Amino acid sequence: MKSDFSNWSDVRIFLAVFRQGSTLAASRILGIAQPTVARRIDALEAATNLTLFERDTRGFKPTHAARDLFPLAQEIEAATAAFAKSAQALTEPRTIRITAPGTFADCVLDLFSDFSAANPNIAFDFVPSIRVLDLSKGEADIAVRVTADVSDGSLICRKIRTAKWALFGSQRYADERGFPKSEDDFRGHRFVTFEHADVPDYLHRWLTDRVTADQIVQSFRDVDLMQAAIRSGQGLGLVNIRQAQFDAALMACFGPIDALSRSHMLLISPDAYRRPEVKTFVKFFAPRYAATFDQS
Amino acid sequence: MKSDFSNWSDVRIFLAVFRQGSTLAASRILGIAQPTVARRIDALEAATNLTLFERDTRGFKPTHAARDLFPLAQEIEAATAAFAKSAQALTEPRTIRITAPGTFADCVLDLFSDFSAANPNIAFDFVPSIRVLDLSKGEADIAVRVTADVSDGSLICRKIRTAKWALFGSQRYADERGFPKSEDDFRGHRFVTFEHADVPDYLHRWLTDRVTADQIVQSFRDVDLMQAAIRSGQGLGLVNIRQAQFDAALMACFGPIDALSRSHMLLISPDAYRRPEVKTFVKFFAPRYAATFDQS
DNA sequence: AAATCGCTCTTCATTTTTGTAGAACAACAC
DNA sequence: GTGTTGTTCTACAAAAATGAAGAGCGATTT
C-alpha cells in the first residue's frame, strides 16, 4: 500500500499507451525507449494499485479501470497544455509600456522611430505619467525619471545622463558689460529666460530667486529663440552645457551650476527587464538618449 | 531553445515553492531534498524559458510570470487530484454483480449469508439472467452457468462441479421387478419423475424420451417427495449421485448417465477478477458450492 | 511451411537524478 | 555583539532511471 502518485508525468505515458495500444508505438510517439514506457506504466499501476493494461504479445490492452481513468487523464493533459501555452505566451515579445515626463516624447520621438524601424515587431504603449512606485506593481515596464532619488530599491535603475547647466553669454555682451564671476555676482546684469507650461520651471525659478524682475529682459517660450537672444547679446541665459558646445558663439560665464544638475534615470522593473524585447530596447535607447538634449 | 516541458511533476514542485516561498520549506512539504527542489525549478525555468523566481538568501520570491502561471498550475493540480481520487475509488471494494440460473438462489442462499457474515463490507447485486457474452461487456462480474460450452475465451472460467446423475431404485423395487441393466432396458419398468416450471427439464425429458407415458407412475414438484417415492419402491428415478450417497436406501441401477452430466462453471470477467473482493468471494464460494447440491 | 512483422521482456552498461554534508549569507533575537 | 535561525549554494557519492541490444512469441503474409 505505498500508493504514492507523485510522478505526474506518468499520465503522459499512460495516455500515449492507451491511445496507441502498445508500448512500442507509444515509445515512438513519446521519443523514449520502449522498456522505459513499460516501466512507467508498471510504476503507475503500483502507485494506483490498479491493473491498467492487459499485456500480451500483441500489445497493451486497456482494462476497465484504464478506460474509467482515461477521461481524467485527458483533463490533466488539457490543463498542462494550457499551462505550457501560457508559459509560451509569456516568453513572446509584448508591448513595452513606458512612462516619461510630458516633455519627453517631443525630444526623443526620433529614437522611437529608429527603434521601431529596426524592430518592427516590438510595440510601445506610452502610459500617462504615474508614480515611480507603480512600476513595481506592474503598471508600466520602464519609466524615465529626472529626479535623483530612487525610492524603490527593487527597481533596476540606470543613470543614462546627467544634464548640467551653466550661464552663457555672447562675446558682444562680454564686451559691453563683462561676465559675472559667480552666482553671487549678478548685480547689474541682464538675463533672458525660458518658460513653458509643459516644462518644469526649476531653471526659471533658480534665476528669479537670484535676480530682480527688471533684470530679466525677456522670457521665451522656445529654447532656440532664447539661444538666439543670448547670441545676439541681449542678456545671459541658462543653457545645457553639451547643447552649448554646438554653438560657438555661446560662452560660459563660469562653470556648471551644481544645483541645476539633474540625473536622467531609466527605471525598469526586474520582471520587465527579464523580457528580451525590453533588454533590447534599453540597450538601444540608453546610449542614444545620452546623446540627446532636452529641456527638462 | 530546448523548451521541452515534458516533466509534468515539476509543476508540483513549482506549486510547493510558490506557496512556501522557499525551496527548503517546499522540500519539507514534498518530502524531497532541498537541492532537488531547486534543481527542478531550474529545469522548469529552462523548459519554459522563463524566470519563475527571484532567488536570494531569504528565499524564492515568485516573479510576475510565476504569478501568471500559478492559477494554471493549480488547475493541473486539481486535475491530478481528481485522477488520483478516481483511481483510489477504483481500488475500493464495490458491489459484486452476480448472475445465475433461476434455481440458483434457493440452493446457495446459505452460502451468501455465511459470506456476508464474514465479509460485511462486501455487497452483492443479483442481476437478472443475462447472456454469458454480456459479462465481457461489464454488465456483471460473475456468472454461474451450467452449460459446458464457454463461448468467450477472454473470460476466466472455473469449473466448480460436475453434477452426475444415475437411475436409482430401492431394494423393494429390485426384489419385485429387478433393475434395468442399461438405458436400453426400460421395458416393463416403472418410473417417478420431477418437474417444476422454474427448473430446466432436461432430466424429465430424458426420461419421457425413453419410456412411455404409462410407465411414469407419478410426477413430483418436490425433490424430497420424489426421493421418498423411490425409497418406498414406487418406481425408479433420476437422482444426483452425490446426493444419493446420503440416502443408503437408494441403489443405482447402473452407472452415471453421461448424457446428463453437467458442468457447473463460474465465469468471471478478468477486470472483475482483479478486484480483491471478487477474488475473496470466488475463493470462498467455489469449494463450498462444490459441496452443495441442486436440481439444475 | 516458412518468413516477416510487431509486439513484450530481460539484461546490462550508461546516464541522469537524487541525497548528504557543509560553506556562506542575511535577518533577527538576546 | 554574538548567537541562532532560515535560506541558498556547491561538491561529490549513491541511487535510480534510461537506452540499446537481443531473445521470444503470436499473428499474418508469402
From TrEMBL, chains A, B:
Residues 7-63 form the HTH lysR-type domain. It comes from the Bacteria. SUPFAM superfamilies: Periplasmic binding protein-like II, Winged helix' DNA-binding domain. One of its GO terms (biological process) is DNA-templated transcription. InterPro entries: LysR-type_TF_proteobact-type, LysR_HTH_N, LysR_subst-bd, WH-like_DNA-bd_sf, WH_DNA-bd_sf. Keywords: DNA-binding, Transcription, Transcription regulation. One of its GO terms (molecular function) is sequence-specific DNA binding. Belongs to the LysR transcriptional regulatory family. This is LysR family transcriptional regulator.
